[in-house]
Amino acid sequence: MSRRTLMIAVLLLLVASASFVVTVLAKPERPTGGPGVLSWLRVSDSQRQSILAADPTFEAEARALQSEVKAQRAKLAEALTSADATDEQILAQIERVNEAEHALERRVTSYLLKVRHHLTAEQRVRLMNLAAERVCEPGRGRGQGAARGAAEDGRGQHRGRGGQ
User: Fold this and answer.
1) Concatenated DSSP letters of 8-32
2) Which residues form the domain of 21?
3) Per-residue pLDDT tens for 57-82?
4) How many domains does the chain have?
5) Structural domain contains residue 159
6) Residue 143 forms beta bridges with which residues?
7) Which CATH number does the domain housing residue 108 bear?
């Protein structure tokens, strides 16, 4: 295996690892954000209103960021399957995927940090334990769970490539 091929394989592994963090909340039997997580936490109507007021743009921004991640991944897949793509083009596209995933990861984290201030101590513990559990789950791979779940019904939607 050439050094460049090894480098590409390592970078692909890094991309998969970064996307893991984005999808850690996508476990199907648990909510991931937005209305679903609020119901799972059993927030009161007043809590729900204060959370929505604290971060009113989350769902729209998460959807837009997830669309960008998906578009950048599609471009990476195209580059990987193209006979004409150079190593440099593939590596540059990996960086673009990484940037998009990091933007989504930061936005989801920002939402969690805002939400927790509107929760009771018990709800906060439940939410942070859920987030910590997702971070530590092995084999979560790529997905759209956090943003898509938040934007739709709060349930993780991605179940591997066939779920897209």
Assistant:
1) HHHHHHHHHHHHHHHHTT--TTSB-
2) 3-154
3) 998 999 999 999 999 999 999 999 99
4) 1
5) no
6) none
7) 1.20.120.1490
65-69 long-range contacts, Cβ below 8 Å, gap at least 24? 65/100, 65/103, 65/104, 65/107, 65/147, 66/104, 66/144, 66/146, 66/147, 66/148, 66/151, 68/100, 68/103, 68/104, 69/19, 69/22, 69/97, 69/100, 69/101, 69/104, 69/144, 69/147
The pTM assigned to this predicted structure is: 0.61
The partner residues of 155 in beta bridges, in order of sequence, read 31
Residue 49 makes CB contacts below 8 A (sequence gap 6+) with: none
Distance (Å, whole) CA 130 – CA 121: 14
Q: Is residue 164 part of a domain?
A: no
Decide if 57 is inside a domain. yes
Does any domain span residue 160? no
Residues with Cβ within 8 Å of 5's Cβ and at least 6 positions away in sequence, in order, are none
Number of other CB atoms surrounding residue 75 within 10 Å: 14
pLDDT in tens, 25-47: 444 445 555 567 888 899 999 99
